[in-house]
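Design job #97: recover the sequence.
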């Protein structure tokens, strides 16, 4: 481990890279946290919806020749496709199981990871797919002698926009306020004449839409393949746990810890970089077993 050659510019570059990864982690984790906080459902299939979002983005962008306009269209379409799939899942099956034990719900959503995995294999095959970043954000700019990808800068802009959108949704809209009330006392919300079932459906679809958006945004940064759902769902659950179950801002804080420790670990000790974020998770849980912020679930 040689830390003597680490410069301020290299450290800043990795911090920015870590923050851009934080964007993806936060978008996916916030959707999972929203579903956990309101519906009390540990949706293991969340990672599969993220994977579907990435594959749909590839297909739509490729249909338009992987142009900038094609990517923008794909970025708009892919999360909507995932939202539509999630609506069918929620209205067709999941809505009948809300009163069941959490373990049954977990096993039910896990079964859908297998179903979605087979569907992806049937539609797209088992080969890797790759998608180029749109021309407008291709290349990099100089950061103290180090190249920093323009697409990572795009992600750094998207993160705060999504966080602001979630804040406005949960605090300034009627459905957001009802969802927050249902998370605290769903029986009371139902008692005053509000159809909680429809609120749950809306929250589930929004949470899954965020999974699809995360998959769409990550598509140009890595290979799109079966199995990409496994890593993200583990990371998302860890982020939700250390941030506070159901707490959106906790998800943001947890994603930042995970993304930054991973990026700095690559700089300090590349061979064991994967250990750094999980070590951070262990330390957080030892200090605050219930998470950094107040848990809703």
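Job complete. Output follows.
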């Amino acid at each position: 481990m040689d830390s003597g050659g680490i410069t301020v510019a290299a450290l800043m570059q990795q911090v920015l890279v870590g923050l851009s990864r934080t964007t993806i982690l936060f978008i996916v984790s916030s959707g999972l946290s929203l579903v956990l906080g309101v519906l009390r459902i540990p949706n293991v299939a969340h990672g599969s919806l993220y994977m579907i979002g990435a594959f749909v983005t590839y297909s739509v962008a490729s249909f338009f020749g992987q142009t900038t306009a094609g990517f923008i269209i794909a970025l708009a379409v892919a999360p909507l496709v995932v939202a539509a799939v999630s609506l069918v899942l929620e209205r067709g099956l999941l809505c009948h199981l809300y009163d069941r034990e959490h373990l049954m719900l977990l096993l039910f959503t896990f079964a859908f990871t297998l179903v979605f995995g087979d569907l992806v294999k049937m539609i797209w095959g088992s080969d890797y797919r790759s998608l180029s970043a749109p021309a407008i954000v291709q290349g990099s700019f100089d950061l103290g002698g180090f190249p920093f990808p323009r697409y990572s800068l795009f992600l750094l802009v998207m993160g705060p926009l999504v966080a602001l959108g979630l804040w406005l949704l949960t605090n300034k809209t009627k459905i957001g306020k009802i969802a927050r009330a249902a998370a605290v006392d769903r029986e009371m919300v139902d008692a005053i004449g509000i159809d909680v079932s429809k609120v749950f459906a809306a929250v589930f679809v929004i949470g899954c839409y965020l999974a699809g958006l995360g998959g769409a945004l990550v598509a140009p940064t890595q290979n799109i393949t079966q199995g990409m759902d496994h890593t993200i769902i583990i990371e998302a659950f860890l982020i939700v746990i250390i941030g506070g179950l159901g707490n959106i801002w906790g998800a943001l804080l947890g994603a930042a810890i995970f993304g930054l420790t991973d990026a700095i670990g690559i700089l300090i000790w590349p061979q064991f970089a994967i250990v750094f974020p999980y070590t951070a998770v262990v330390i957080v849980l030892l200090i605050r077993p219930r998470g950094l912020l107040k848990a809703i679930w």
